[in-house]
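Input/output pair, single chain:
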Amino acid sequence: KYEFLIKFVFLQIGANDSISETITVDIFKKNLLNIIDYFIERGVEPVLTTIPIRTDSDNTNFITKVNPWIKSLGYKFVDEYNIVRGENVLSDGIHLSKNGNTCIFNSIKGVIPEDSAKEGIKQKLGEANISLFLCKNLVNQPQKGETTHECIHKE
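Output:
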């Protein structure tokens, strides 16, 4: 048995799905709920983000359906869509610039209680028994484009 040392997980996903030809809105929603459930079952609180508008592709149709739904789930969230609409926050149409990273970081600090954040960054780096969690996307064949997430625990 193992124990997660983190209290929050920041789920910044969906920007690539929003322009995918195989990931529908329904598939995205199902995938996000599966990821949220995975962490909640382990006592880790998810912090969600809205999906930003892309300047390298048109993802407007996808995000106008998904972003209100993300906000309605009732979890803490960072409104990345509105942050990214500012100037000098994207470096290439989708990836955050230094200024964009600072804006997102400050927004995350605003939704996570300061005492929890301080406690969460305490590490026992001197111990040899460091747990490594690797998450990888696996294609679920029954529905084209649907993904599931398998997390592997290694000692």
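Strands lie at 8-11, 45-49, 76-78, 132-139, 147-154. Residues 15 and 41 are 25 Å apart (CA to CA).
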